[in-house]
Amino acid sequence: MTYLYNTPDDQHAMLKAIGVDSIEALFSTIPDDLRLKRDLDLPPQMGELELTQHLSALAGKNASPATHACFLGGGSYDHFVPAAVDALASRGEFYTSYTPYQPEVSQGNLQAMFEYQTLICDLTGMDLSNASLYDGGSALAEAVIMALNTGKRGEKVVVLGTVHPEYRQILQTYFTHLGIEIVEIPCVDGIADLAKVEETVTAETNCVVVQSPNFFGGIEDVAAIAEIAHKNDAVVIQSFDPISLGLLKRPGDLGADIAVAEGHSLGSPMQYGGPYLGIMACNDKFVRRLPGRIVGQTEDRRGKRCWVLTLQTREQHIRREKATSNICTNQGLFALRASIYLALLGPGGLKQCATLCTQKAHYAQAKLTEVERLEPVFTGSPFFKEFVLRDTQGNVEGLLAEAREAGFLGGVPLGQFFPEMDDCFLVCVTEKRTKQEIDALANTFSLIHSGGSTIHA
To answer: What pLDDT score was predicted for residue 344?
Structure first.
């Protein structure tokens, strides 16, 4: 937000409207023992030029995809964002909308939401989509809530161990004190053990949560997992990578009942972790428990096409105990960005993007494992754009720190999520990475291993 300042006249006018004489009087209700009785410890004031230079210098200390070749993944991806996305999404009528939940929301915003829902349904192969949620993790938790509220009475939730560890942590946070049993199935060679799934999913299972491509980049056999789940009358929830659907079968075609995703890769930058976009789509039978908003198309009294909020199950609109979503703000702007991105690329462009990711990732795995110090961890399963490497010297943090000094964000250390994998790291390769960057990263790792000096990317 642009810096806004208040002149003494502005302050006086506001205080007069409030009905107090001074700012001191405005804060008089704060107990004296809680009030700071000294000046703030701030450096001397700067002029605009000096302050801009100072802040730019501070920002320049960050290592980011703008300054380094980025091979980070694990839920946040450095995909290319066409300039048209920024140009269209930054129009004032979209950029300044806040909470378009109200019935009087503009037709332009309603149409944008409707187009987003249509695109997500096409992308996922599902019957309907809401108009967005907070992010991928909360969308997954909302999907489990929806399954528990809509499906059979069983309260056992089976989650594959290859689901993003932070997503699984969100589920634990949501359900630990609600009497919901969450059972996690360990992975084998980077994907779920189908025999273990068959053994774990029983008549008491309410839903099965699978991520494909999973946290390690591996492609799960979602169709086989869905068959096992449906045989036990359980709901299938798939978390997916939107870009991957340019190549892989859609969740709806694989038997998923609810599909969720982190949608920031559809036209929004990494932004140091957010704000992001929660995607949720499902089959018709879940429509009455779907959180968020659903926009429908209809006709006005003159017979012209128009749009309306068909479903808005917030506690502000219906009884609290019947509400399925208490989300106040929304990710409408990021949903709009996703719509523009998908419309720009089209099916052919999305397929090309996904193909580039896959081809470059497989080239990178082959090239990086030529380094004597590195070896692949999972070799028996196909992967999309991410893969896991092991540092045979067991010093992942040191290896990645040296690579960062050379101009590479080389990967995500996995020890923070899996203590038994503290010698491993996750590498992601998107369509933005070039052969030259991949070769340079491999050369950098090789020089680090041999103790030689590295060259900045």
So the answer is: 97
